[in-house]
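Subject: Protein record for review, amino acid sequence with backbone structure tokens
How to read it: Take the token row as a discrete description of the fold.
Enclosed: The protein record, placed directly beneath this head.
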Amino acid sequence: MSRGKTYSLKARKSKVRVEDFARPPGSARDRKFSSFIHSLPDLLLARDFREFIEGLVEARSRGSLILWGMGAHVIKAGLSPVIIDLARRGWVQGIALNGAGLIHDYEVARVGRTSEDVEEALERGEFGFARETGEEINRAINEGVKKGLGLGEAVAKYIAQGAGSKGQGAKGKGQSSKVKGKNINNRQSSILQFDSGQVVNRQSDKFPFRKYSILAAAYELGIPVTVHVAVGTDIIHLHQDCDGKALGEGSLRDFYRFADLVSRMEGGAYINLGSAVILPEIFLKALAYGKNRKGKNFLVRKGITTASFDFQKQYRELVNVTQRPVRLGGPRSRGYFFLGAHEIMIPMLSWALS
């Protein structure tokens, strides 16, 4: 057998170069988190991560909206303080949750713990029937929707103001103020104040762990928070106080509120944290709403940056968050998918934005 023709390795085009390799920690003075980010290899997801951070920084510098969609696992992984801190630092102009996210946020604020053992509780016939969760969330929704609120604002206001508790305090103004880039109408009640970067309960004892509530923090900061439900998927739907009319009306209001934000996010970013189905679908429909309202040039002038963070690739996250919106937004748009545990990836994202 004859040997094939060869060529010089030095002349060959290669995809990996030593210039792109990672750098180990330098001196003690060099061991900052920013140094860590810059030490990552200029390859694969590390390169994507740096590009994504640059996209968020650019979006914020131009005053464009940065919207976040979150599944309940973000809260169950103990990351609420990280999201609250990002919001306080101006990296969040809108938050979309699914129904489970609403429930876990409430339970954390109410008793400082959440996430029951499903199999054990199911065997006893008790799964989903925690009294306070069913009664109070449904009451907040029913009363809030009657007053023209969406699900997110209704429950956020309930938690933030300590409704039904001692020293109910000053009334908030809701989330009706328009979001314009990073300039949010900040709001402080007599119940909630901020102390060293954390929300601190001053009067009410109904929600003693309120400082860990994303909903309460968003309400106090004037950041729109919307909740998008599928009927029958959440434990509060098991309770007799659940009003299907209020649930549907409130969630539909929240969809249009979120769609309005998406229609105004030219040059901005959408970040999906761990929602595999509902929020990617909501985001896609909100984009359709924006395209219908804004016309053929929607998103094209400045583009859009999208990313999904999850521990495995899911179809709707991949297609509805990182692919279709980027095609709609044109050549200035970028979409990223970051694989990894939320409890590691989301704090790393927050540190990178510090």
The longest helix spans residues 244-263.
